[in-house]
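Curious: why this fold?
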Amino acid sequence: MLEIAVLQRYTPLHNLSEANLERLARRVVIEEFPKGSLVCHENDTDNDSLYLLDGGVELKSSASSMTRVVQAGSPDSFFPLAPGRPRPYTVIATMPVRLFRVDNASLDRVVLLDELSTTITRLRENDGQQFAGDSAWLEEMLANPAFQQFPRERLALILLRFELHSVKAGEAVIRQGDPGDYFYVVKEGRFAVARKDPQGKVQLLNELKQGAVFGEEALLLDSPRNASIIAVTDGLVMRLPRAEFEELLKYPMLNYVSATEAQVMLKAGAGLLDVRPAQEFRQGSLKGSQNLPIAELRKRIIELDPHRSYVLICRNGHMSEAAAFMLLQRGYRVTVLRGGLQAIRAR
């Protein structure tokens, strides 16, 4: 692993905190190239930044007869080589070369993480340092595709509204059957997801770790909690009250369409996904719709095409909102039919 002092020489890495540089260092790949070998080719579409550690390279472009030479230790060597997608230059090693490669998605996320942590620490005067703390939880949350659509200003606002809540091992953060009041993110510790069946038998369904989100389903469906979340260890959670969840996450995150707009999307190739229970679906739905009940969505998500967009429908829109939130976190492109089937029948 490269030393932090080495990474601090490069742009934009020099602006990062040591904690975030250490996090990035674990993702860096070091590569070596002999003299005359190809480092990267013009028009390559990989999403990596390449930084020169030792040796020298020549940069060539088909658009010009001019070439450019970069030597390790020179001012230009502390910037990425041939940045951009597609790459504007072919890069050839003019002598033995050692460089490091970092995925731009990881780099962008760490830069964002650093900015947000600094902002939160500064603006939350009383608990800023404890709030930001080890930002591994925040990095995991930002890796969630549902949060990647937000601009930095919106993310900072969301984080400023979070409340820090501590829990002891064995304590229930939420209880099955209780009304939904908060949306949660795991900051520290381990948490078990448990559900009691009608016969009273408790089943452990999953374990949540840093950066995991939970509690949104009851808020979106306006229904009681369908499972309990129990602290396996002492821990910390970030929580967002219902009203602020709706203002800052639900409405900005979800995309809604009218029946007319949905028809246009379907003609363009979008899928129509009915998330009501199977029994209700059999009583009547829209022509061409696929039934995937929200209660089965997690275990049957593999049935969906990740490259296709979907219009979600249900009775009144609430189930579709919960399903959309779940699918957005897994990178699917989804929209919600506003008002559901009730809105269509009322026309």
